[in-house]
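Homework help board

Subject: predicted structure for assignment chain

Our instructor gave us this sequence and asked us to write out the predicted structure in token form, then describe one feature. I got the tokens but I'm not sure how to describe them. Can anyone check?
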Amino acid sequence: MNIKQIAKDTAKMLQSYLTYQAVRTVSAQINETNPYVAAWLHRFSTKERIQDGEVYIEELFREKPELALRIMTVRQHLVEEVSEFLPEMVSTGIMQANMEHRRQHLERITQLDLSNPSTEEEQTSDGNSDEISS
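My token output:
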């Protein structure tokens, strides 16, 4: 397990997600003041690679630099706002989710299926009925 590579991959994924959230925020803001530009941004965002935030920003700079700058500003603001809470929230969220998954798994494996008795129960009940009738 390469922890440094996992950390790099996680950081890149988080950057791309914050870029996506910044695009959504800017799009909503622009939609109120300039629906034409908001529609253009929506079309651009669906055809370009928004999954990779850095590639998306590079492509947007070629088309509309003012939008790229605005999205980068919003993205910077978002990271400043969430970075303080993120490590604890992720850790707590994973611990709670793992506990819930384990609880559900334990419930599934320990449930008694009364509609389909096991063969051991059938043998015991058959054996008891023979003893009682004799």
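Reply (TA_rk): Your tokens look well-formed. For the description, you could write something like this. The first helix runs from residue 3 to 33. That's the kind of observation they're looking for.
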